[in-house]
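Priority: medium. Attachment 1 of 2:
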């Protein structure tokens, strides 16, 4: 189709248009879904396109991050290390994670002194 410099000129021309169209469609979808569901379910007011766009951005920041780094390689390395561990090392690692995150392993309850055992 295009080669070399013409390809980059075409990308430079169409990319902003595609991005603006994508943002517009996303805002419209959020606005229509909100205005269709929430006023009838909860009695909330309808929103404008700009409020829907702000809501979309807010949800992206809160739930989707800002396009930060995803450490998929780190997960693969840990998986490889985990498979090379002995069962004793794995249990030690589990206990370290539980203590770090505030979870204590389940313990057996003390014997009941009134049971006569």
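Attachment 2 of 2:
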């Amino acid at each position: 189709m295009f080669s070399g410099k013409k390809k980059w000129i075409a990308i430079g021309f169409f990319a902003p248009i595609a991005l603006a169209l994508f943002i517009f469609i996303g805002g419209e979808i959020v606005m229509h879904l909100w205005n269709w569901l929430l006023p009838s379910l909860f009695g909330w007011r309808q929103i404008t396109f700009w409020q829907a766009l702000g809501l979309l951005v807010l949800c992206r920041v809160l739930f989707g991050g800002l396009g930060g780094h995803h450490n998929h390689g780190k997960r693969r390395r840990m998986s490889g290390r985990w498979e090379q561990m002995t069962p004793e090392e794995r249990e030690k690692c589990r206990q370290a994670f539980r203590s770090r995150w505030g979870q204590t392993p389940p313990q057996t309850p003390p014997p009941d002194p009134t049971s006569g055992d």
